């Protein structure tokens, strides 16, 4: 028996939709961005090179933290507890798993991915191609319910990114210094912070379970701040994709000696 828009009792309309506008443009654009980022990140993490600039202490977020003996000298800020990695294993596999899991299960990316890549549905008043709907009750989509746990891990990665940002204030001759890469890393960490803190899971953790805000004034202020960020969660989600790519591409170019990092101080 047919289901969805083809189920008994539904109007028989041969057209996919009666919408006269270009409804396909937004999902097409978002889908292209998501595919580009997935391809770029996949290629970069498997390159296992050009991720660390020793003179200015720049470490790309795609490889942080680098916890293997295979990491280049100076890039392992937290030791090398995992020993040597085979060449087929990305040095940033831990970050890839955590950040990838956090973004894939994110409420905004779930909406964007379902519409643009899975077409469930592509847009309002547009029939989806799937015969039936099971939601997120079966494997693999049931994994989406683990978002709050990925948030805890992503928050830890964000703190590591902040630490990497502090180390980027390093002069080429030692001591304090600022380069163009330092500013790029600052912008990236700021956008990652806004994206992480604006997460729905963060909002729930801060004040979602409180029965009386008047009894918890400090947590209420945090909840109010996160709530303001939450309204722009989708915007931060997309902007942070581009800042991560820009930061990684810049550090890769400097590490590969394609050009030198312009220094503002030292």
Describe what you observe in this structure.
With 266 residues, the chain is mostly helical. The protein has one domain. Helices cover 48% and strands 3% of the residues. It is built from 8 helices and 4 strands, in the order αββαααβααααβ. It has helices spanning 25-47, 93-104, 107-116, 147-167, 180-197, 200-207, 217-230, 233-255, and strands at 52-53, 58-59, 178-179, 263-265. The strands form 2 sheets. The chain has a two-stranded antiparallel ribbon. A two-stranded antiparallel sheet has the order 3-4. β1 (52-53) and β2 (58-59) form a beta hairpin. α4 packs antiparallel against α5 (180-197), α5 runs antiparallel to α8 (233-255) and α6 (200-207) runs antiparallel to α7 (217-230). The chain is globular, with a radius of gyration of 22 Å. Keywords: Membrane, Transmembrane, Transmembrane helix.
List keywords for this structure.
266 residues, mainly alpha, two-stranded antiparallel ribbon, two-stranded antiparallel sheet, 8 helices, 48% helix, 3% strand, globular, transmembrane helix, Succinate dehydrogenase
What's the structural blueprint in terms of helices and strands?
Layout: H1 25-47, E1 52-53, E2 58-59, H2 93-104, H3 107-116, H4 147-167, E3 178-179, H5 180-197, H6 200-207, H7 217-230, H8 233-255, E4 263-265
Antiparallel strand pairs: 1-2, 3-4
Round the mean pLDDT to the nearest integer and report it. Answer: 90
Number of domains: 1
Strand order in space, largest sheet:
1-2
Write down the secondary-structure element order: HEEHHHEHHHHE
Largest sheet composition: 2 strands, antiparallel
Residues in β-strands, percent: under 5%
Instruction: Tell how many strands the DSSP assignment holds.
Output: 4
User: Rough shape?
Assistant: globular
